[in-house]
Amino acid sequence: MKKNILVVILVSLAQFLAAQNVTRVKIEELSTYIKNADHPLVVNFWATWCLSCVHELSYFDSGVKKLAAQKVELVLVSLDFKKDYPKKVKDFLREKKYQGRFYWLNETDADRFCPQIDTRWDGAIPASLFLNPKTGYRSFYQRQLTEPQLELELKALVKE
Questions:
Q1: Which candidate, 75, 27, 78, places its Cα nearest to that of 50?
Q2: Per-residue pLDDT tens for 115-135?
Q3: CATH code: domain of residue 28
Q4: 126 contacts 80 by C-beta, under 8 angstroms
Q5: DSSP per residue over the chain, as a string?
């Protein structure tokens, strides 16, 4: 019995720690992941120092969790400074207990990486890409979304 409890605790802890892993990526790797997705994605570009980014992240986390049956994936891409990766970014995500796929974009030239996500993106954050490869749905915002705006966007994302 004790072994079973210990195994459950260890598996739960491993899942929690793995969920807080923040992978360093270049824009090409991120673009490839987005292009090859076979399920709906919500990709949010943010930073720990960006108050409007931090404010909306809880909406994104809870909104995407409600769509688990539709296999919507939340992808949080940190644009934090190099000195803050990985510790500050990981600590922030662990504290907030967000779930999803976490990246730190190892890029500094916004003129090069922004157009690879959306040609209209001028580098402002927060920025969010909503993509459903099965329906062809694609929407991009380079501003903070309110909770009601996000809910409408998520409904449109999964609408068949």
A1: 78
A2: 999 999 999 999 999 999 999
A3: 3.40.30.10
A4: no
A5: -HHHHHHHHHHHHHHHHHHT-EEEE-HHHHHHHHHT--S-EEEEEE-TT-HHHHHHHHHHHHHHHTTGGGT-EEEEEE---GGGTTHHHHHHHHHHT--SEEEEE----HHHHHHHH-TT--S-SSEEEEEETTTTEEEEESSPPPHHHHHHHHHHHH--
Q: Which residue has the tokens 């974009």?
A: 105
Q: How many domains does the chain have?
A: 1
Residue 143 within a domain = yes
Tokens representing 155 are 């409904």
148 burial type by CB count under 10 A (0-12 exposed, 13-18 middle, 19+ buried): exposed
Q: Identify the domain containing residue 58 by its residue range.
A: 22-158
- pTM (2 decimals)? 0.88
- Answer whether residue 49 is part of any domain: yes
**pLDDT one-digit tens code per residue, 61-101:** 999 999 999 999 999 999 999 999 999 999 999 999 999 99
Contact 144, 125 (CB under 8 A): no
